[in-house]
Amino acid sequence: MNKTWNNKAWFLVLPVLLLVAFSAAIPLMTVVNYSVQDTFGNNEFFWAGTDWFDEILHSPRFWEALQRNLLFSFIILALEIPLGIFIALNMPKKGLGVPVCLVLMALPLLIPWNVVGTIWQVFGRVDIGLLGRVLASLGFDYNYVRDPIDAWITVIVMDVWHWTSLVVLLCYAGLVSIPDAYYQAAKIDGASRWSVFRYIQLPKMNRVLLIAVLLRFMDSFMIYTEPFVVTGGGPGNSTTFLSIDLVKMAIGQFDLGPAAAMSIVYFLIILLMSWIFYTVMTSSDADS
């Protein structure tokens, strides 16, 4: 017996898909247009071909910013994924503590990015900030404005504080979806807590962990507002990530051609890295 599929539901979401595609296509076409042309103002354009791409790919400035981005994303994933799993494992599964913990976990996610940057900018100041004053009183020479290491630590801790909750909520959703029968069977077999985590909880969280890794990689690799508000890309260029460098190039220097070419290369790198993460994690999931 052949099953008949009803595809009429697509007509309900088709207007939204068309609207999103249209709103995304216009900016993309504009960026592509600027990336292959040069302009001296007055809306006059001159064909440049791949010159801007060649300039970007041979620029030490681009590769240094890319290295900072990759390092930052690697540190963020190495900290937030294990920390998110640990917190989710220790959250209550029933009772009044469940809504309380969920609300507390969701609070950092509700704060706008620019507000997060402002909070940590003030929080880390040595003269009026609580963190800066406490570290100074303990004898630490902490100053994120002049010390690159302090600036990196501040930006990393800020991101961990802001976004670990997302990993926690995703992992918690994966944990509560595991049927009790698995835990009962493990209890009968006398499995240790590590064995329960290794053979029951972790495999069942594979899908949500894939989403968490992809989301956190893309967000951390595209980070702009928080470090720009806190450090402005400094001291020097120590926290100048690709997004900050791109804005400086496009708005500060008004080099629209190189900025457009850089944004396309930036997008392709994010797409490639996300595909690699997805392929590796889904292949390991299939092997297991």
Automatic annotation (TrEMBL):
Q: Which Pfam families match?
A: BPD_transp_1 (PF00528)
PROSITE patterns (UniProt xref): ABC_TM1
GO annotation, cellular component aspect: plasma membrane
Name its GO BP terms in alphabetical order: transmembrane transport
| Key words, A-Z | Membrane, Transmembrane, Transmembrane helix, Transport
Q: Where is the ABC transmembrane type-1 domain?
A: 66-277
Instruction: Please state where this protein is localized.
Output: Cell membrane
What membrane topology was assigned to this protein in its record? Multi-pass membrane protein
Transmembrane stretches, start-end: 70-89, 96-115, 160-183, 208-225, 256-278
* InterPro entries assigned to the protein according to its UniProt record, in alphabetical order: MetI-like, MetI-like_sf, Sugar_ABC_transporter
UniProt lists the family membership as follows: Belongs to the binding-protein-dependent transport system permease family.
PANTHER family under this entry? GLUCOSE IMPORT SYSTEM PERMEASE PROTEIN GLCT, TREHALOSE TRANSPORT SYSTEM PERMEASE PROTEIN SUGA
| UniProt-recorded name of the protein | Sugar ABC transporter permease
Organism expressing this protein natively: Rhizobium deserti
